[in-house]
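Dear colleague,

Thank you for sharing your sequence with our group. We've completed the structure prediction you requested, and as agreed, I am returning the results in plain text so they can be pasted directly into your records. Please verify that the sequence below matches your submission; if there's any discrepancy, let me know and we will rerun it promptly.
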Amino acid sequence: MKLITAALFFAVCVTSALGQAQTATPPSSPAATTAAQTAAPVKDPVATSLRMLLPRPRTNTLGAITAMPADKFNYKPTPDQMAFAHLVVHIIGSNNMLCSKAADVPAPKVEEAKESDGKDKLLAAVTASFDFCSEALGKMDDSKLGDSVELFGGKQFPRAMAALGLASGWADHYAAAAMYLRLNNILPPTAQPKK
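Please find the predicted structure tokens below.
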């Protein structure tokens, strides 16, 4: 069921991204030409789609983390929920692991982030994890998506599951961060008035 949900989410995101690219620009503009070229068959559709999706969750997630005051990083909506800092640590680990697995490149050798790290250190680490994803996905091709890789709980999955988990995780992580912001009376990046 989770695989079907992730696949559907991925399809909606790609369709939305392509639709926005095709309808948001005049037909004669360079961006429209690029959108038309993107709509044509591509060699690596999954890798290409992940690269197309990455800028939005990167911008929104980093914006949400930046917007949360440093003294609220220990905030928990309820005692049983994770602290905001825990969410940030999770995002770092998820980006590094899933981008590595999806692209079949080594994970970066970084100091493990901790909830007790300050806002600046966590923000730098999550920024680095998105930088790593950009670099890794730039090397990704679809030829290895059927390979078996170890993922969640040490179980074997097709490499494609890492790509699907990455796309759905980006949406889930931003949604969670936005909820934490709203509970602290802070508008998340996507709710900010257009300038």
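Summary note from our side: The longest helix spans residues 159-183.

Kind regards,
the structure core
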